[in-house]
Amino acid sequence: MNNIVVSGYYGSKNAGDEAMLAAMLEVFTDLDPKIKFTVISTNPADTAKRHGVKSINWLSVFSIVKALKNADLLISGGGSLLQNVTSGRSLYYYMGILFLSILVKTPVMLYAQGIGPVFGWLPRRLMRWFCNHARLITVRDKESLTELEQMHISKPLIKVTADPVLAIHSVEKNIGQHILSKNKISRTKPIVGIYAREWRGLINYKKVLAEVSDRIGTSYGAQIVFIPMQYPEDVAAAEKIAAYMKSAPILLNDEYTTSELLSITGNLDMLISIRLHALIFAGVMGVPMVGLSYDPKVDRFLNSIGEKAADDLESATAESIFVQFAAKWQNKDKCREENGQRLSELRSAASSNAELALGLIKKQKTI
Questions:
Q1: Segment 238-274, tens digit of pLDDT
Q2: The CATH number of the domain where 330 resides is what?
Q3: Where are the transmembrane segments (predicted)?
Q4: Residues 101 and 184 placed together within one structural domain of the fold
């Protein structure tokens, strides 16, 4: 029986990261139903209940070391763990987990990570040391590979795959239909979903999204629905945007599971999103999307499916967003078809992460 410890940003009620874990567990279980997981989490009780796995506290060094000693592999990922743009401290934490695994001689795999940006001489030097001690690295985009090359990380096998969430199973739309109906959202009128978030206290992009939302509602008779990826923070961000609007949007004010968010997204006619994994949800569920960038990871994903962000949060204008929205609205079927073709290749690449991990375990056991 294979035992894997998983390190990532789990247990903090960020639906994107929880989707990443759910997708990883789905793919591994499809390949090996007997596999055992221990997930390092900020909320072990929630992680155990939500995903049906053993979970340990992210600050319990004793528990982490004990789990690593009994594991065949440490998986670090997916997501953008190894960067110091959104947080300087988190980079050191995740490198600390890598150090503990190396210390007890448990093989390390960086799993579909989005690498960087990493700023500063010391963080880059430490990254080089830790990553060169990994047994296998997969990254979710070509830009991450470039980051590794620039930091002179080359000792382990490195492969470009895709974000783990792209391998998640699509879901039925009836769950989302029930949630939308419960919130008095009509299925006879177009529905445009917006996944918003707070970012560095900026105000302009909130006013821009408010203007775009009003314009879409007026031009297409669409219902504007704000959907929270991270609860309750995203609800607060949506409330700020709604305060600038002339019309009244619908704000979903609840915490949803990965399956529920996928199903809600599947019922949309179009999606506008700042959140990366909401864009991926749209791809999985065949919904045309408009992305707004706050981080290179958003641009990287959109580039991988042949698209570009409508704008970035720092300089966003209502006109640039509406122009891209209008173009896609007129060609929704074509957008679905093109995205479906590109995403089918990425789904296969995303699934290969687990195949490579199990291959590494098998190789280690035969040495």
A1: 999 999 999 999 999 999 999 999 999 999 999 999 9
A2: 3.40.50.2000
A3: 91-119
A4: no
Order of strands across the sheet that contains 311-312: 250-251, 223-226, 191-195, 270-273, 289-293, 311-312
Q: Are 166 and 254 in contact (CB under 8 A)?
A: no
Domain identity same for 220 and 279 = yes
Q: Examine residue 152 and state whether it is found in any structural domain, yes or no.
A: yes
Question: What is the percent of the chain with per-residue pLDDT over 90, rounded to a whole number?
Answer: 90
Residue 363 lies in a domain: no
* Contact partners, residue 299, CB within 8 Å, separation at least 6: 293, 308, 309
CA dihedral 183, 187, 188, 191 (to 10 degrees): 80
Tens digits of per-residue pLDDT, 332-357?
999 888 888 888 889 999 999 999 99
- The CA distance from 168 to 165, in Å, is 5
CATH at 65: 3.40.50.11930
CA angle 201, 121, 94 (to 5 degrees): 65
127 and 52 in a single domain? The answer is yes
What is the per-residue DSSP string for 10-51? -SS-BHHHHHHHHHHHHHHHHH-TT-EEEEEESSHHHHHHHH
Rounded to whole angstroms, the Cα distance separating 160 from 110 reads 12
DSSP 141-162: SHHHHHHHHHTT--SSEEEE--
Q: What is the pLDDT of residue 88?
A: 80
Cα-based angle 33, 16, 107 (whole degrees, multiple of 5): 50
359 found inside a domain:
no
Contact 165, 19 (CB under 8 A): yes
**Full domain range(s) for residue 149:** 3-160
Distances (CA, A) of 274 to 174, 190, 277: 25, 21, 9
Q: How far apart are CA 52 and CA 33, in angstroms?
A: 13
> 354 in a domain, yes or no?
no
Q: Which of these, 150, 46, 155, 67, lies nearest to 110 by C-alpha position? A: 155
Mapped onto helix, strand or coil, the DSSP state of residue 180 is: helix
